[in-house]
Design goal:
There is one protein chain. 51% of the residues lie in helices and 11% in strands. The chain is α/β, with parallel strands linked by helices and 237 residues long. The chain has one domain: Uracil-DNA glycosylase-like domain (Uracil-DNA Glycosylase, subunit E). 32% of the residues are buried. The structure holds uracil. Uracil binds next to helix 7.
Length: 237
């Protein structure tokens, strides 16, 4: 077993000593994630437990979400909806909250709006399985009402952890709630959409929510423009 000092010098040299706790933690998570990813990609035959660890951080987090009782939505949900897709995806979509179908199936975006999201993803030559899809809230607000600020405050930590484990290169927020929450902004979605913002070492671009497009199909044109920007960035990432 290597001594801590050796590991420290090998990985980062002496400057690690001057890092604050948060940055050090982020560096460590990065190194662990990249090492695990590398081992998996190389097909290096290690113990099954190590292979399984590729998705380890997320599995632990999913377990936490499944057992979460932090807010009253835990009492009314059928299933929490953690997220779905490729955990190593370059592109992550973030929606608002599960609806009826998602609550029943435990999967994000499987209802009408979800079918439209699939088409939107396909429009830039990707499949749902090429990207990761998550929501701000993991549980359905009864009757599909808007998320309460207190629910967002209690739940958003899970999404932030998903983002720091997965480190997508691009995040596309869908609609007002996901956009305003991640950007910590009160500006309307109509003013924020279609622009890239720097967000935790990723590029974040808001666009309209597919559920909104079901009622305002004329706005699909703008989402198409946003998706073209995402495709250009995706190809560079
Ligand atoms: N709308 C959302 O914002 N998320 C879902 O998962 C489904 C519908």
């Amino acid at each position: 077993m290597r001594k801590w000092k050796e590991v420290q010098e090998m990985l980062w040299g002496k400057w690690v000593m001057s890092m604050d706790k948060q940055s050090l933690q982020e560096e460590l998570l990065d190194v662990v994630k990249l090492t695990k990813q590398y081992l998996c990609e190389q097909g290096i035959k290690v113990e099954n437990s190590v292979q399984a660890e590729c998705a380890g951080g997320l599995l632990d987090l999913k377990e936490k979400v499944n057992n979460c009782q932090k807010c009253p939505l835990a009492k009314t949900r059928t299933n929490p909806v953690f997220g779905a897709g490729d955990e190593h995806a370059k592109l992550m979509f973030v929606g608002e909250a599960p609806g009826k179908d998602e609550d029943l199936q435990g999967e994000p975006f499987v209802g009408k709006a979800g079918k439209l999201l699939t088409k939107i993803i396909n429009s830039i030559g990707l499949k749902r399985t090429d990207v990761y899809i998550a929501n701000i809230l993991k549980c359905r607000p009864p009757g599909n009402r808007n998320p309460e600020p207190s629910e967002i405050a209690m739940c958003q930590g899970y999404l932030l952890e998903q983002i720091s484990i997965m480190k997508p290169k691009i995040i596309c927020t869908l609609g007002k709630f996901a956009t305003q929450t991640l950007l910590n902004s009160q500006q309307p979605i109509s003013q924020l959409r279609g622009r890239f913002f720097e967000y935790r070492n990723t590029k974040l671009i808001p666009t309209f929510h597919p559920a909104y497009l079901l009622y305002s199909p004329g706005e699909k044109r703008l989402v198409w423009q946003d998706m073209k920007k995402i495709k250009t960035e995706y190809e560079k990432a």
